[in-house]
């Protein structure tokens, strides 16, 4: 199997170097595609030096990941956030599980940060994903090329694109929930507060399921607010 690792970015000059450097040993088995949504810092220059492909798109994580996927040549597409690190032997683990059946999946997650409660949050995220069959972007979604384009890729909405894609892929089959842990930044929880962030995410997710406009939800998410002022 050959992999395509697709990284959506926007002003990630601080986190992207370590992300891409960690992927360099995998380049004999995977191409690295960075999809930039209009960065104004050094993100593009960093990507040009450490990635195989760079694509520039309008801002929007779903739009960016779809653009990266259209350039991809790999049999397996892996969507990685710039502040997330893959577990050891990630590609081998994916390959082994897919060989036993399945079309898509994700890793467990570990959150990196100061609050001890981040360990509990990560555990809850992993169990919730197993119970619901819904994967989040932080858990590093991987999917066969055929399945991804078979469902039409990421719905190009402003927020909850990972949930929307999971719902489409569940029609093909349940996710492969790998217990190896990807490590992601807990910076959002540290910035807005752990309890506030938990309540906000549940609030936004509930409103999404009841039909709220993802663009309005994305605005609230970026500001860390429950309601428009």
Round the mean pLDDT to the nearest integer and report it.
93
Kindly report the name of the CATH homologous superfamily of the domain at 3-109 and 135-185.
Spore Coat Polysaccharide Biosynthesis Protein SpsA, Chain A
Q: Kindly provide the name of the CATH class of the domain at 3-109 and 135-185.
A: Alpha Beta
Number of helical segments? Answer: 10
Measured by DSSP, the beta-strand proportion falls in: 15-25%
CATH topology title of the domain at 3-109 and 135-185: Spore Coat Polysaccharide Biosynthesis Protein SpsA, Chain A
By secondary-structure content and strand pairing, the structural class works out as alpha/beta
Which strands sit side by side, in order, in the main sheet? 3-2-1-4-7-6-8-5
Overall shape: it is: globular
Helix share bin: 40-55%
Spatial separation of the terminal alpha carbons:
50 Å
Largest sheet: 8 strands, mixed
Uncertain regions spanning at least 5 consecutive residues? none
Q: H/E order of the elements?
A: EHEHEHEEHEHEHHEHHH
């Amino acid at each position: 199997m050959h992999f395509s690792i697709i990284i959506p970015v926007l002003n990630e000059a601080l986190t992207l170097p370590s992300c891409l450097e960690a992927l360099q040993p995998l380049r004999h088995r995977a191409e690295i595609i960075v999809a930039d949504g209009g960065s104004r810092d050094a993100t593009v220059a960093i990507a040009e030096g450490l990635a195989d492909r760079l694509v520039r798109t309008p801002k929007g994580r779903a739009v960016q990941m779809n653009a990266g996927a259209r350039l991809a040549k790999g049999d397996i597409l892996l969507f990685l956030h710039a502040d997330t690190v893959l577990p050891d032997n990630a590609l081998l683990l994916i390959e082994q599980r897919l060989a036993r059946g399945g079309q898509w999946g994700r890793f467990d997650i570990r959150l990196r940060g100061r609050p001890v409660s981040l360990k509990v949050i990560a555990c809850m995220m992993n169990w919730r994903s197993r119970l619901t069959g819904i994967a989040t972007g932080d858990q590093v979604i991987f999917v066969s090329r055929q399945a991804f384009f078979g469902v039409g890729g990421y719905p190009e909405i402003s927020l909850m694109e990972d949930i929307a894609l999971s719902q489409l892929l569940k029609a093909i089959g349940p996710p492969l929930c790998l217990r190896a842990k990807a490590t992601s930044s807990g910076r959002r929880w540290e910035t807005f507060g752990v309890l506030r962030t938990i309540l906000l995410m549940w609030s936004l997710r509930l409103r999404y399921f009841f039909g709220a406009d993802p663009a309005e939800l994305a605005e609230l998410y970026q500001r860390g607010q429950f309601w428009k002022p």
